[in-house]
User: Fold this.
Amino acid sequence: MKKMLSCMAAFLVSCTIMTAAEKNVTPKPASDWTFFQIGFLPGVPGSTKYSNVYGLKLGAPLVDGEGRVCGLEPSFLYSGTSYIDGLQASWFGPAICREFNGLQASIPVSIARTMYGAQAAVVNIIREDGYGFGAGAVNIAKNFYGFQLSAANVATGEFRGFQFGVFNYSEKKGCQMGLVNIIKDGPLPFMIIFNGSF
Assistant:
C-alpha cells in the first residue's frame, strides 16, 4: 500500500511539473478543423499536436495537443489538449488543460489553468481561476467562484462561494461548512461547523 501511494504521489508531482513547463503556442485558426482524431502517445501522430477537433479526439491510450477540442476528449492514461469546450476525461491518468468549458474528469487528478464548469477527480487543481463546481477528495484552487465539495478544500487566493468538507481553507472571503473552517482574512479566521466572510 505504501509503495502504491508513493508511486501515485510521484506521478502527481510529475504531472504538475509537466503543466508548469507549458509553452505559449497559438493553436491553428478555428476554421481549420477535423471531426475525429486518435492519439497513441503525446504528439503521435503529429497531426494531433496543433489540430482543432470538433467532435471526438480519442486517446488510445494517450493524447495531447496545443489545439482545441469542441466535443469529447476521452483517454485511458492521459488527456492533455490545451483548450477544451465539452468533456475532457481520463480513466487511469491525469486530465490536464489550460482552459476548459464543460466537464473535466479523471480518476486520479484533473488540472487546469482556468476552468468554467466542473471538475471531478480524486484531486482537482486549478492554477488560476475556477468558475463552477469541484468534487473529489481534494480541491485546490488559486481563485475560485462557485462550490467546492471534498474532504479538503483549499483556495489560496480569492474565494467567492461555498466550501463543504472536513477541512476548508480560504485566503479571502467565502462561506464554509465542515469540521475545520479557516478564512484567513475573515472576522473569525477559525471556526468549527460554519464560517463566513463576505
Q: What stands out?
A: The longest strand covers residues 62-75.
